[in-house]
Amino acid sequence: MVEGKVLAADMTGLESATTLLGKDIAIKVDMGSVYINDAKVIITDIETSNGVIHVIDAVILPSDEEAKTIVEIAAADERFSTLVAAVTAAELVETLSGEGPFTVFAPTNDAFAALPAGTVENLLLPENKQALTDILLYHVVSGKVMAADVVGLTSATTVLGKDLTITVRDGKVFLNDTVEVIITDIEASNGVIHVIDAVLLPPQ
Fold first, then answer.
1. Measuring CA to CA, which of 3, 53, 70, 198 is 20 to 30 A from 168?
2. Domain 70-196 falls in which CATH fold?
C-alpha cells in the first residue's frame, strides 16, 4: 500500500514509491509491462471511493536486510522449482551461491515443462549428471550483466565456454533467436537473474 491515489499513467513516470511500511518498492517499465519489484502489474486503475487498486501477479515481500544469493532467490520463488531441483541434482548449489558475480538466464517451470516428455526426468537421473550440468552452465555468464548492457551485445560466452547469440526485435530480447527474456534485472548479492521462456540447449 502506498499513500495517495497513484494511477497507472502516473506510475510509469516513477522509479520507486514508499509503502506504508516505510520501505521502498521499485517501479520499472520493461518491454511494455510495469513491474513492482519483481511482480508484474496485470490490471490497472480499479478506482474506489478512497483510492485505487492495481492487480499484480505475485506477493511482494519486504526486502531483507541482507541480499540473497541467486540460489536463495530461485529457491524462494515457486516459478523456479524445477530449475532449483536441476541445480541441486547437478551439485551446482555451492557454485552458484559463491561470490561470482554471475548472470543467470533462468528458465521457468513452464519452460522446462515444454521440453519433450520425459526429458527433465531423464536429465535428473544420476547417470545424466554431466549432460544436466552442461545445460545449466549454458545458462550462466560470468559477471553481472544488467538488461541495459544485454541489449547492447550480440553474443555472450557462457560458463560452459559456448556462446549465446543476443538479438533485439520489437523491443524484446531473444537468446539464440527464439528464447525470449521475459523478466529482467532480478538482483542478487552475487549477480543478477533474467527470466527466460524456454530452456537453452548447448550446441552439439
1. 70
2. FAS1 domain (2.30.180)
